[in-house]
Amino acid sequence: xxxxxxxxxxxxxxxxxxxxxxxxxxxxxxxxxxxxxxxxxxxxxxxxxxxxxxxxxxxxxxxxxxxxxxxxxxxxxxxxxxxxxxxxxxxxxxxxxxxxxxxxxxxxxxxxxxxxxxxxxxxxxxxxxxxxxxxxxxxxxxxxxxxxxxxxxxxxxxxxxxxxxxxxxxxxxxxxxxxxxxxxxxxxxxxxxxxxxxxxxxxxxxxxxxxxxxxxxxxxxxxxxxxxxxxxxxxxxxxxxxxxxxxxxxxxxxxxxxxxxxxxxxxxxxxxxxxxxxxxxxxxxxxxxxxxxxxxxxxxx
Length: 301
Hints:
This protein is mainly alpha-helical. 76% of the residues lie in helices and 0% in strands.
């Protein structure tokens, strides 16, 4: 195996592991301070790391006037709003359940591509979507589908995490144009910077600084892990790896993310590894795989 490909595989593996563990770290942090404070601290660190990377790679340049609104929109959707949904959701949702729900993001990307970009949706993809949806229902209800029939769809946090999936799909589709035109690290730096600035408004108006004394050592460790590894290094490694690996091959590693979350959550949070949740999770991944397997490269009719 070429050395460059081996390094790329190691980078992808690193990114997937830390992103899987991010649900657990967030869950630990939001038990001590508000989600807004966690998001603000996490991305303050991430912005610093990505900014340093763009400078060291000589990619730093202030965005042109016509880029500002685009980066600001992506920052609001992909950082401020997306992370608020997930962090707030994790106050009541289990980390493992959240990871399984978030694994459906590719499903929403295909649906949006069909609805907005006129991309084709085959019957195989449709069947995959149905299987994934059934898997989500099993995971959220922990196998008690009768409770869903009575209108009990998990916790409020589960609903917020569920909303983050289509939101990320919108962000991903809007990001396509930018990733084709700009270096990924530079683009993510400005997207993250705008997102952090928007979250700063909430952080300041809600007195986020007054919450810092509430942090325990584990709380600070969790935020540091989220900022340095999840919002900084993982993004750099992921996009660097995509230069050496086909997108489909790199994307296949993402199937491991919810399993990483389940293992780390069991060890750190003592969340039970329920057989019915694993069964529902397997249905989600099978559905996502079917949808991706039969995705058409055509962009319209």
